[in-house]
């Protein structure tokens, strides 16, 4: 089993040794399902303003050769949230690996010119394979992240793709579930 770098962060919660060991065990074993996992970032959040059954939130972001897997779950207990997130990620990694194998067989016949990017969310139980049903093209202009967030709000979108005038790279700004913004910047 390949070791994966696991980074644990706590927000409004003290991350004790037993919690660290539990995370290492549950998240570390995900390499059994997809051996290309390189790192995991686990964020533990205690939210006092939520109902008790949703007050302990776990957000996990996995990185595997440029492919990102992300899952989050909230419950009454931090350990229960970790269990649920690890089960969801197991299913998603297994499904992703199966798709890679089946696409590899198809690609032996003809090559697909597109590389898959995975955004993990709560997936429906349907076994239908996802497909690209729409392609949208648009001109992008250089702007800073603050301008991009304003543009995103004006368009009433959840995300916005723009050319970052600081880094001269294409970046994505998105609205997080907590109301704040996230910024995705590529690394080459």
Question: What features would you describe in this structure?
Answer:
With about 190 residues, the chain is an alpha/beta fold. It has two domains: about 5-110, Double Stranded RNA Binding Domain (2-Layer Sandwich); about 140-185, SHC Adaptor Protein, CATH 3.30.505. Helices cover about 30% and strands about 30% of the residues. It contains three helices and eight strands. The chain has helices at about 15-30, 80-110, 145-155, and strands spanning about 5-10, 40-45, 55-65, 65-75, 140-145, 160-165, 170-175, 180-185. The strands form two sheets. It has a four-stranded mixed sheet with strand order 1-2-3-4, with helices on one face. The chain has a four-stranded mixed sheet with strand order 5-6-7-8, with helices on one face. β5 (about 140-145), α3 (about 145-155) and β6 form a beta-alpha-beta unit. The longest helix has about 30 residues, at about 80-110. The chain is globular. It starts with a strand and ends with a strand. Mean pLDDT is about 80; it is low at about 110-115.
Structural class of the secondary structure composition?
Answer: alpha/beta
What is the CATH architecture term of the largest domain? 2-Layer Sandwich
What's the CATH topology name of the largest domain? Double Stranded RNA Binding Domain
> Biggest β-sheet: count, sense, barrel?
4 strands, mixed
CATH superfamily of the largest domain: Ribosome hibernation promotion factor-like
User: Which percent band covers the strand fraction?
Assistant: 25-35%
Radius of gyration: 19 Å
What global shape is seen? globular
Spatial order of the strands in the main sheet? Answer: 1-2-3-4
Report the mean per-residue pLDDT as an integer: 82
**Total number of distinct structural domains:** 2
């Amino acid at each position: 089993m390949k070791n994966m770098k696991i980074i644990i962060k706590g927000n409004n919660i003290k991350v004790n040794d037993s919690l660290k060991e539990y995370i290492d065990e549950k998240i570390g074993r995900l390499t059994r399902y997809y051996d290309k996992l390189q790192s995991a970032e686990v964020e533990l959040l205690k939210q006092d303003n939520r109902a008790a059954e949703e007050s302990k939130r776990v957000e996990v972001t996995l990185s595997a050769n440029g492919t990102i897997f992300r899952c989050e779950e909230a419950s009454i207990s931090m350990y229960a949230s970790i269990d649920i997130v690890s089960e969801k990620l197991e299913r998603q990694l297994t499904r992703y690996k199966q798709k890679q194998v089946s696409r590899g067989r198809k690609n032996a016949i003809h090559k697909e010119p597109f590389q898959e990017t995975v955004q993990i969310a709560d997936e429906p139980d349907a076994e239908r394979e996802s497909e690209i049903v729409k392609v949208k093209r648009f001109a992008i202009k250089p702007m800073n992240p603050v301008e991009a967030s304003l543009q995103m709000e004006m368009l009433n979108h959840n995300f916005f793709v723009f050319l970052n005038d600081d880094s001269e790279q294409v970046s994505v700004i998105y609205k997080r579930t907590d109301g704040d913004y996230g910024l995705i910047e590529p690394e080459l």
